[in-house]
Amino acid sequence: xxxxxxxxxxxxxxxxxxxxxxxxxxxxxxxxxxxxxxxxxxxxxxxxxxxxxxxxxxxxxxxxxxxxxxxxxxxxxxxxxxxxxxxxxxxxxxxxxxxxxxxxxxxxxxxxxxxxxxxxxxxxxxxxxxxxxxxxxxxxxxxxxxxxxxxxxxxxxxxxxxxxxxxxxxxxxxxxxxxxxxxxxxxxxxxxxxxxxxxxxxxxxxxxxx
Length: 210
Hints:
3-stranded antiparallel β-sheet, elongated, cell membrane, PqiA-PqiB_transport, Butyryl-CoA Dehydrogenase, subunit A, domain 3
C-alpha cells in the first residue's frame, strides 16, 4: 500500500502572512505586524475584500452600458458626418470585409469585459455562500482573470487604433466622443475589482467576518 499523502502545514500554522504589496512571506513576530521589506500592514485576508470588489464591479457594470451605447468617435468627411459606437464599428468592419479587425474589437470590447463580470460574480457569490465545491477550478478561474487583466488596456488601445484607421487627413477629421471615456473607466474599475478580491477566501470553509 502506498504512503498516505501528507498535507503541508498552512501559513497560519507556520505563523506566516503574505504581504499584499511585495508578496513577501512575513513572520507575524514582526513588530506591529508590518512587512519588513515594504512596510505594508499585514492582514490575514484583504480588508473588506468582498464589499470592495462588489462595489467596483457594479460600478464598472453600470458604466459599461453607456460605454456601448454612446458613440466613441465622430467622423467628418466630404460626404457628411457620422458617429460610431463600439458595436457599430464591429458591424461596419465585418460588413466591409475586415473580419479580423472586427473580431479583435469584439473580443476586446465585449468578450473580455463580460468574462470579467461573470467570473467575478461567480467568485463573489460562491465565497459569500461558503461553497466548498470546485475550489481548485475557481482558483484557476481567478488566475486566468488576473492574466486577462494584464491585457485589459488592449480594449482602449483597440479603440484608439480604430480611430487612427479612419483618419483622412485634409479630407476629413475624427474626434473622440464620450463613449471611449466610459469604456476606459470600465477597464480601470474591472482591473481594480480583480485586484481587490482575495482568492484565499475561496479556501475558507466559511465566509470570514471582515
